[in-house]
Automatic annotation (TrEMBL), chains A, B:
InterPro entries: Alpha/beta_knot_MTases, MRM3-like_sub_bind, Ribosomal_eL30-like_sf, rRNA_Methyltransferase, SpoU_MeTrfase, SpoU_subst-bd, tRNA_m1G_MTases_N. Pfam families: MRM3-like_sub_bind (PF22435), SpoU_methylase (PF00588). Belongs to the class IV-like SAM-binding methyltransferase superfamily. RNA methyltransferase TrmH family. This is RNA methyltransferase. The keyword Methyltransferase applies.
Length: 258, 258
């Protein structure tokens, strides 16, 4: 165990940089925050480099932190590292797994339900969709081109531990769609268009891909043209659309067989 | 039309205060931001006092702003008023309708589906739930005790115009539940508990109440004991729970008849 009290400490400065994509790329590390997430990361097969916490928070938590990982810091340092308004004061610095730093090819044999994210921007939406995919029994989530970075601290926080439960990969969505089609598995696009099929017409199944598109512009035309079916959620009131994470939740729970 | 260029202008200072509950209570006004919302408020039966916009934004918009409401401001003033990282530079100052400042009794004759919010905190979640209730064809949303303020700018923004499509009222949820029960209409509580009924067992219907509870602690025990049935969403993966707005979306679209 060691103690750091100055916000000017070099390591503290390095950790702060992990909030940016550039900083994560340079060091190959990422930062997670909060009691629940740190507890989850320690229970999982992740490469934790440090657990950084205030003494007050250490007195509070109910799980063990290995002594050789522990760095005790001041409240001020915790505030610097934090991405929240009132921090709990506990963080982990974790090495990004090598495979998750690169675009992955879809497996030759695909199983389970997969959520494909096409150019989704909002960290809260992305994290919530990963959490919902976990709850709906999905196998994994593919982060396609233009979708925000898996290791963004806001996304990590919104995932609420689901990042340690299901598979998250960077991927070329065109390749993933091709693999599903080749395996004769359905690929559902989502389109804000009553010309598409209502999701209620689709029977629940186990192995499929569901693509969610950009908050403002929807899915790319190229991907839309390669799906088995494009689905929409019938809007009954005057709202123009649904929040993408809410739409994804309705679709995932309706499409995935128990 | 008038023009204000100083952030020290008294009216600008008054408008800034509308971001706080105290400021809204004192003046009886609220502030909304963004092209879409301002366009909606002007089309609706709302008491708009001013439309405040930068000249660049006025050159951009495709809808008419009545000249006697218009105040042109500098980019700097727009930044001061804004609640977003990059503002579009258009706002409306709107009088809070008298009826929405007071707790309302439930109507003696209840119709349609109503979403009841019990002690919900996060503005994004609340706004998203109102937007989803609109899309699902709900009649209105009741803001119960402890739920954040209807006129909070973040909530107003997340509602995306649905505040002008469905009824939003402050209310005592105990009274609302009693009224539904008296009218022999179902009241569905939500409980993170497999002892509850799976939502999939409930047939879709038109007139009912659905109660969503606090993000961390769920619904109040008192309300839970007064419902017709308490529902849960079966979790298939390892996630501990769903985001409350996602859960509300799944339930509303499943419970409400088309």
């Amino acid at each position: 165990m060691e103690t750091i009290l100055s916000t000017q400490n070099n390591r503290v400065k390095e950790w702060e940089k992990l909030k940016t994509k550039k900083g994560r790329k340079k060091t190959g590390m990422y930062l997670i925050e909060g009691r629940h997430l740190v507890s989850e990361v320690l229970q999982n097969d992740a490469d934790v480099v440090y657990v950084v916490a205030t003494q007050d928070e250490l007195d509070e938590i109910k799980f063990e932190v290995p002594n050789d990982l522990l760095v005790v810091v001041s409240d001020k340092i915790a505030d610097h590292l934090s991405d929240t308004v009132t921090t709990q004061g506990i963080f982990a610095i974790v090495r990004i797994p090598n495979k998750e730093r690169q675009i992955q090819e879809p497996a030759s044999y695909i199983e389970g339900a997969w959520l494909l994210l096409d150019n989704i921007q909002d960290p809260g939406n992305i994290g919530t969709m990963v959490r919902t995919a976990d709850a709906a029994g999905f196998e994994g989530v593919v982060f396609g081109k233009g979708t925000a970075d898996i290791f963004n601290p806001k996304i990590q926080r919104a995932m609420q531990g689901s990042q340690f439960h299901i598979r998250l990969v960077l991927g070329d969505l065109n390749e993933w769609v091709k693999s599903f089609r080749k395996a004769n598995l359905p690929v559902f696009g989502t389109e804000l268009n009553p010309q598409a099929k209502s999701y209620q017409e689709i029977e629940a199944t186990n192995d499929f891909a569901l693509i969610m598109g950009n908050e403002g512009n929807g899915m790319s035309k190229e991907l839309l043209s390669q799906t088995t079916a494009n689905l929409y959620i019938p809007i009954k009131g005057q709202a123009e659309s649904l929040n993408v994470a809410v739409a994804a939740g309705i679709l995932m729970f309706s499409l995935k067989d128990i």
